[in-house]
Amino acid sequence: MRRTILLTAPAVIFAAGCVPQEKYDDLLSAYRAKEQQVASARQETERMRANEASVRTQMQDYMDKLEQAELQMGGQNNEISDLRDRYELLLEQVQNLDFGPMNPELNEKLLRLARENPDLLDYDEATGTLQFASDVTFAMGSVELSPEALAAVQTLADILDEGDGLAFEIQVIGHTDNVRLRAGSIYRSNVQLSAQRAISVRNAMVKDGVSPERVLIGGFGEFRPLVENGRRGAAANRRVEIRLVPMPVLETEEIEVIEPDPGPSGATSTPPAPAGEPMK
Hints:
With 280 residues, the protein is an alpha+beta fold. It is built from five helices and five strands. The chain has helices at residues 2-96, 104-116, 134-137, 147-160, 190-207; strands spanning 121-124, 129-133, 168-175, 215-219, 239-246. Helix 2 runs antiparallel to helix 4 and helix 4 crosses helix 5. Mean pLDDT is 80; it is low at 1-17 and 275-280.
């Protein structure tokens, strides 16, 4: 029994000596792990500080750009405000223009003409403008007036060729949509077609008694549409407008005409030809 105790005692002592070493190793490992964590935390902190500095720089850059944009917008707002003021001033001037009232009797005649031809023409009494629908006034691509249009133009000519109708100049303006002309058309463009249609209306009015010097003609083609054109154009844009505006007052200047002095026999004397110039 005693030998057994002596043999086992060193083992117990050795085992007791190993425990502190293991704890030391564990603590050392834990310390190194914490040290690595601290180092990683420091690196992350530095990275975050660098990111913060970059973000602050970007924020300052954005703030500078925002201030510049606000300054520019302020200038644009001033320009917009100025344009709005100028527009309102022009609008007021236009609204205050006095074109002179249309004579009630003449106005009623034009209204009656429009009522009698609702599919053919409209009349805007505010502007003194009659609008002939080209789809009824002309065949497609044609400049010849339809019988219905000829009758309406004759009635209009009678109205404008008497009384207060004589005080107005007649402006005949043709318009088309944006549909291209058919291949083989004798007209090179819609402008030419619209102008020729205006000429046809003008010729019919002159034939019906309107004085030629009172009529002005023009053609805008597709360039002054009333509505947006679709794939097949728009019927509202195919039209002939007749605008009634006061006749301009033309001032004439008297010119003194000097008649040649007759010769002794009553014939006018012919001045001699310059030397060197053959007689004609």
